[in-house]
Every structure is written in structure tokens, then in C-alpha cells.
């Protein structure tokens, strides 16, 4: 069994259980493994993983995906950045450079700077009265619609991608698949489904976005 399969099998928790496991940094789960698998299929060149959390997707990519030549991992959460940096230092892979940057979505990055940008965004629709106002909330909540962070990401993706670059983003059925794909097309991207998996409470799709 590969590490990714082990993670997928081992972590079958409800969101409430995840909160009990970890309150500061999002730990790898089914969605993390889906994004890692999509990067394995389509990632290349200089890759940015936005919202890296524990850094597992970024470091797995650096270790396993030959087509990716450099990995930049970013997160708005300073605890996540520390965890990701620690994981990168502990990695056996010494050939693919990994750096960690704290920042809000894509604001810290230059125009035309990545061949691949990957994101497992916070996407749960959350009642404002039920917000916990902690780092796990930032990891899970996409605001009242579930789409607030995804839409901000899509708005600025075009700027940081090279012209033939690719964005890999996870969409949940809980977030409104058609609403998000319409937003993607309106922002000037075409999309295709790289991987799709159904779970008891949602279907997750990793979409590949390319400039139209
Ligand atoms: C669902 S978790 C995914 C973590 C990790 N990529 C994985 O797949 O295991 C979402 C991550 O996005 C980060 N995040 C939320 N809003 C962000 C923002 N505006 N800019 C950068 N990162 C953000 C959270 O802190 C969290 O680590």
C-alpha cells in the first residue's frame, strides 16, 4: 500500500472528528490524497500549492512527481507554514526544492510565475452565527455560500499562471458544482475533471483549469 492509499484508508473522519484531532493545522484526509493524485497526473514545472496545511501534498509532490521541478507551499495560517516547513526539512528528497511562504491566496506571488497552481480550498457552507473563528474554521469554511475562498482564488489565478499553465482545484458537491463551474468559465478558463470520488456526504472533483 502506498503512503497516499494509507492516508486515504486511515483517515475516514467526520468534520467534527477532525476538529477533535487537530484544532490548528488541517491534517491530510481524503481530499488531500485526491489533490496529490491529480498533481501526479497533471502537475509539471514550478508548482504552487496554495493552502498547504500540514504540507503533506506539497512534500509528497516534491518526492514523487518527476515532472514537477520546484514546489512552493503557501498558507495564510502561520502554524500551517511552520508544520509544512518542518515536513519539508524532514523529507528525504533533496533534488526538488521546496519553499514555504505565508500569505493570503495568491497575493504574495509574481505574475506569470507558475506552470501549476493547486488548491484544496475551504469549501463548507457555514452559517455566520456558527463560525468558530479559529484556524480550523479558516481551513474548512467557505463562508455562507461555501464559495467565497474558491471564487477569490479563481479571480487571481490567471495572473500567476504562465499562459499554458494549469490550475488544479477541488470542488465539492456541497459547494454547488454548476455554480462554481459557471464562475470558472466566466473568469476565462476551460475546465476538465481529473478525478472524482463520492463519499457518504459529498462528491469531490478535482478540476483542471486552463486559460481559454
Ligand atoms: C482544506 S485545508 C487543505 C490543507 C492541505 N492542502 C491538504 O489538502 O491537506 C485548506 C487550507 O487552506 C488554508 N487557507 C484558507 N484560506 C486561505 C487564504 N486566504 N490564503 C491561503 N491559505 C488559506 C487553510 O489555512 C488550510 O490550511
From TrEMBL:
One GO CC annotation: eRF1 methyltransferase complex
Keywords recorded for this protein, A-Z: Methyltransferase, S-adenosyl-L-methionine, Transferase
Coiled-coil region list: none
GO function term, MF aspect, one: protein methyltransferase activity
GO BP field: methylation
Domain Methyltransferase small: 32-123
InterPro entries: DNA_methylase_N6_adenine_CS, Euk-Arch_PrmC-MTase, PrmC-related, SAM-dependent_MTases_sf, Small_mtfrase_dom
Source taxon at top rank: Archaea
Family as reported in the entry's similarity comment: Belongs to the eukaryotic/archaeal PrmC-related family.
UniProt protein name: HemK-related putative methylase
Organism: Haloquadratum walsbyi J07HQW1
Amino acid at each position: 500500500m502506498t503512503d497516499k492509499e494509507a492516508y486515504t484508508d486511515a483517515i475516514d473522519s467526520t468534520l467534527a472528528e477532525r476538529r477533535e484531532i487537530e484544532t490548528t493545522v488541517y491534517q491530510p484526509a481524503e481530499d488531500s490524497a485526491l489533490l496529490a493524485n491529480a498533481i501526479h497526473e497533471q502537475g509539471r514545472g514550478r508548482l504552487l500549492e496554495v493552502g498547504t496545511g500540514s504540507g503533506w501534498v506539497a512534500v509528497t509532490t516534491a518526492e514523487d512527481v518527476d515532472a514537477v521541478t520546484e514546489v512552493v507551499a503557501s498558507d495564510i495560517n502561520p502554524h500551517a507554514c511552520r508544520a509544512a516547513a518542518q515536513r519539508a526539512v524532514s523529507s528525504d528528497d533533496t533534488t526538488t526544492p521546496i519553499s514555504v511562504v505565508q500569505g493570503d491566496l495568491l497575493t504574495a506571488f509574481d505574475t506569470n510565475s507558475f506552470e501549476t497552481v493547486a488548491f484544496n480550498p475551504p469549501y463548507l457552507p457555514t452559517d455566520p452565527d456558527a463560525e468558530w473563528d479559529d484556524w480550523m474554521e479558516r481551513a474548512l469554511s467557505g463562508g455562507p455560500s461555501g464559495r467565497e475562498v474558491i471564487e477569490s482564488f479563481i479571480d487571481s489565478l490567471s495572473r500567476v499562471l504562465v499562459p499554458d499553465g494549469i490550475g488544479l482545484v477541488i470542488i465539492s458537491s456541497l459547494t454547488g458544482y454548476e455554480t462554481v463551474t459557471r464562475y470558472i468559465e466566466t473568469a476565462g478558463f476551460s475546465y476538465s475533471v481529473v478525478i472524482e470520488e463520492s463519499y457518504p456526504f459529498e462528491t469531490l472533483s478535482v478540476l483542471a483549469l486552463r486559460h481559454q
